[in-house]
Amino acid sequence: MYISVCAVLFSVIVDVLGQTVEQPELSWTKPQNKRAYIKCEVTGLDDDDYVHWYQQKDGEALQRILYVNKEGTSPIHNSDLREAKDFTVQLENDNNYVLRVNAVKSSHSGVYYCASWVFISGSHSETNFLHVLQ
User: Fold this and answer.
1) How far apart are CA 94 and CA 61, in angstroms?
2) Nearest CA among 114, 112, 134 for reference residue 13
3) What are phi and psi of 81, to 5 degrees?
4) Is the dihedral of CA 22, 28, 31, 32 positive or negative?
5) Do β-strands 87-92 and 76-77 pair in parallel, antiparallel, or remain unpaired?
């Protein structure tokens, strides 16, 4: 069985306070039990900024899978999302945050968002990107 992976642009490359989020790949198909990678290029992060990955299944609310610091170390998984531990994140080339799943399951089908948050004096701005895994 094959799982189609499609990325759909949710927000055109956004430049907020010098920060941008961009997705280079727009669609792909993976066989079940194979690895899948979703890349998200984020530039302009400050040392205390984080990159977040979200999943939204058809007809369900958006849920955060995990978030990771600028250095790409110490990801924090959502303990309320059963499948969160199926995912890892890796930083490549200083700006590419790659969400990985080692064995694609049909239950991974959904829309995936990459987002970064910039906190300034109690407020924040957001840049994000949308991915569809079907």
Assistant:
1) 31
2) 114
3) -105, 110
4) positive
5) unpaired
